């Protein structure tokens, strides 16, 4: 297992890219919490008002993903990164000085033009790796995502306790900007050498790649994050009923560590598993977690779901990179980010309704059933796509198994 990861991290520029993008992703993961704390503690408004700002930011991210991806395909990586960094610097510096109404609109614009660290990392992984290393690299990317969820919000909470909400907002903005500038300096390749030579200047129309197979993968991406968002709320509701809500952070941490471990093990396996199977298993093991009624049992109950989380997300990213042609990979990864953002936005309200209508255990059931429905839909669509795919219409991906991985700009600082 160690050998496979050592080989991936030894690829020129890969370790630097993962390190810099982790900084940006951890800050982006914490941006909603930073805004929530500012609205509640800094402006003295309600959590409902804070939810409005968080919702505006999330909606902007969901809409902006494919737009930024398309701009990257057309204008290049550095242009888009530096433009989005400039927007983030202006927004986060302005947050402590904006009244609520203006903050609401500014948050939407900031989400629309959020630094696309996650999507760019996925594009670069697809370009910098061969088929032999790609699944392992995407497993590392999923582990990186889990680490960002463990680190980012925790740092914001500690910062708010030690400093002011305004200082936390500035810190988050500085980290987002630093990560975006770092990726721009590295300027990782977004197309493999063979892809660039074969399809230089050609942007395929959407009908060539946004077909049944891609819709299947995006559906499963949506289902996975719907489950994850819902599970967080179900954990809090279960422990609140037991009078142990202060232990929620421990349960969430156990979930995250389990996901990291699952992602590392999966990335070292010799063969991949179908996305629909992993998502279906994730849904199945989530449902019985509702039987736990105190924090030690809940920690044990979420381990199974945690182990399957990073593998599921990594197979989604791998599938998108394989189905999207090089000339449209930016837009495709943007669509993936939008699907996952939409899942995060829907998961909490869906599970909240289930909890209000029944018991906290109903939240785990609702989250698991949503994932099962997405897995079933994605599996059926994938099967249909495999039956109807034709060589003339199938998106082409240029594979050059014997080539050396593309190098990050040799002049870029490490």
Automatic annotation (TrEMBL):
Residues 391-407 have a biased composition (Basic and acidic residues). The keyword Protein biosynthesis does not apply. Keywords: Membrane, Transmembrane, Transmembrane helix. It comes from the Bacteria. It holds the Pfam family MFS_1. The chain crosses the membrane at residues 36-64, 76-94, 100-117, 209-239, 245-266, 273-289, 361-381. Residues 386-414 are annotated as: Disordered. One of its GO terms (molecular function) is transmembrane transporter activity. This is Predicted arabinose efflux permease, MFS family. It comes from Micromonospora chersina.
């Amino acid at each position: 297992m160690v050998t496979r990861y050592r080989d991936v991290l030894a690829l020129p520029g890969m370790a630097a890219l993962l390190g810099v993008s982790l900084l940006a992703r951890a800050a982006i993961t914490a941006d909603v919490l930073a805004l929530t704390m500012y609205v509640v503690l800094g402006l003295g408004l309600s959590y409902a008002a804070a939810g409005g700002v968080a919702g505006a930011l999330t909606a902007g991210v969901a809409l902006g993903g494919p737009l930024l991806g398309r701009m990257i395909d057309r204008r290049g990586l550095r242009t888009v990164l530096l433009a989005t960094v400039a927007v983030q610097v202006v927004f986060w510096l302005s947050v402590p000085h904006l009244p609520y109404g203006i903050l609401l609109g500014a948050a939407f614009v900031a989400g629309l033009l959020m630094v696309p660290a996650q999507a760019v990392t996925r594009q670069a992984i697809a370009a910098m790796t061969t088929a032999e290393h790609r699944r392992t690299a995407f497993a590392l990317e999923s582990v990186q995502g889990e680490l960002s969820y463990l680190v980012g919000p925790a740092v914001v909470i500690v910062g708010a306790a030690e400093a002011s909400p305004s200082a936390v907002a500035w810190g988050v903005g500085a980290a987002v900007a630093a990560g975006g500038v770092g990726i721009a300096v590295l300027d990782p390749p977004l197309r493999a050498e063979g892809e660039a030579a074969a399809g230089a200047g050609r942007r395929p129309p959407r009908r060539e790649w946004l077909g049944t197979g891609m819709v299947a993968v995006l559906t499963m991406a949506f289902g996975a994050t719907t489950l994850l968002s819902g599970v967080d709320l179900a954990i809090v509701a279960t422990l609140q009923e037991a009078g142990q809500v202060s232990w929620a952070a421990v349960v969430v941490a156990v979930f995250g560590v389990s996901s990291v471990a699952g992602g590392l093990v999966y990335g070292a396996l010799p063969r991949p598993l179908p996305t629909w199977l992993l998502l279906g298993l994730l849904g199945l093991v989530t449902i019985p977690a509702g039987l736990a009624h105190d924090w030690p049992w809940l920690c044990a109950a979420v381990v199974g779901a945690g182990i399957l989380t990073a593998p599921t997300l990594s197979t989604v990213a791998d599938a998108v990179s394989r189905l999207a042609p090089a000339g449209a990979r930016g837009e495709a990864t943007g669509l993936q980010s939008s699907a996952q953002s939409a899942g995060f936005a829907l998961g909490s309200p869906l599970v909240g309704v289930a909890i209000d209508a029944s018991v906290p255990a109903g939240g785990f059931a609702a989250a698991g059933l949503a994932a099962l429905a997405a897995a079933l839909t994605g599996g059926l669509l994938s099967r249909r796509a495999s039956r109807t795919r034709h060589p003339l219409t199938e998106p082409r991906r240029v594979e050059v198994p014997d080539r050396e991985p593309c190098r990050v700009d040799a002049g870029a600082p490490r």
